[in-house]
Automatic annotation (TrEMBL):
Subunit details: Homodimer.
Keywords, comma-separated and alphabetical: Mitochondrion, NAD, Oxidoreductase, Transit peptide, Tricarboxylic acid cycle
Keyword Lipoprotein: no
Organism of provenance: Citrus sinensis (Sweet orange)
UniProt superkingdom: Eukaryota
Family: Belongs to the LDH/MDH superfamily. MDH type 1 family.
NCBIfam families: MDH_euk_gproteo
Lineage: Eukaryota, Viridiplantae, Streptophyta, Embryophyta, Tracheophyta
Name of the featured protein: Malate dehydrogenase
Transmembrane region(s): none
UniProt-listed InterPro entries: L-lactate/malate_DH, Lactate/malate_DH_C, Lactate/malate_DH_N, Lactate_DH/Glyco_Ohase_4_C, Malate_DH_AS, Malate_DH_type1, NAD(P)-bd_dom_sf
Amino acid sequence: MRSSVLRSVKTLAKPAGARGYSSESVPDRKVAVLGAAGGIGQPLALLMKLNPLVSRLALYDIANTPGVAADVGHINTRSEVAGYMGNDQLGQALEDSDVVIIPAGVPRKPGMTRDDLFNINAGIVKDLCSAIAKYCPNAIVNMISNPVNSTVPIAAEVFKKAGTYNEKKLFGVTTLDVVRAKTFYAGKANVNVAEVNVPVVGGHAGITILPLFSQATPKANLADEDIKALTKRTQDGGTEVVEAKAGKGSATLSMAYAGAIFADACLKGLNGVPDVVECSFVQSTVTELPFFASKRAWKN
Ligand SMILES: NC(=O)c1ccc[n+]([C@@H]2O[C@H](COP(=O)([O-])OP(=O)(O)OC[C@H]3O[C@@H](n4cnc5c(N)ncnc54)[C@H](O)[C@@H]3O)[C@@H](O)[C@H]2O)c1
Ligand SMILES: O=C(O)C[C@H](O)C(=O)O
């Protein structure tokens, strides 16, 4: 895979001057989290509350959001927090959103594959994306709900049907694969984890997760068997957590961290920050597959 395959969220930038921007201030940005009372949703709500690029934080779920919003809302950072519960309040939660993050849906239990979640999560994602098309058609969508390899194409179809599809604004969040690859590589290569970069391409399930350790930096002379073991551990990272949690769900804290990194990159891109690049599962012409996780330099 060539390193020139880069997708940058910088090209999503709106012109400076939009929505109250001045050189002294950062623009107003509304972020909505759908599934905000869940295992990922709660720590993700916390991390988005800590992000100074967010001015309004809408926390939506089918239950329990008043408590989460009251709790997170007491934190003395920039954003105003509001909780929304149930379908009647979904429109309000979404209205004016710049970025919508979707961790709504059921997680795996030991013995399940991500595809086993399809029947339930496909319906949830379809309904939420229909509402996004109606209430905030221009928002950037960060899809976390599994199976990402399917929920992203479902979202694309919903948006196409509604006439709102913008391939540059639909992202399957695969940042956790990158986070894992960086952690495992740093441990094996004995390098400073804060300096490590590893592109991860492909998809977000088992062998479709392709960490490109050959392109990892800082360079390390790892043996082939080490690279094989690192690749397998990255591909099985989700299952490692599912098994360790023994029926109590899948990755939540590391996923919230990864989701917050990706949402932050989207906000920076919207604000016109140059050279913001993350891997994610996007509509693609890199292979014959219609969607493929990659980094790509966008040319408008
Ligand atoms: N992309 C990734 O790398 C990655 C990583 C970890 C987990 N996940 C996926 O994220 C999803 C959520 O995981 P979790 O551990 O937070 O699960 P969870 O069960 O703890 O939380 C899910 C939340 O979604 C809510 N929900 C259900 N239907 C909804 C709807 N129609 N609208 C709004 N909210 C709704 C639930 O009420 C719950 O609060 C799962 O599908 C999981 O597989 C993806
Ligand atoms: O593995 C899962 O089911 C959750 C998530 O996709 C992960 O990679 O941790």
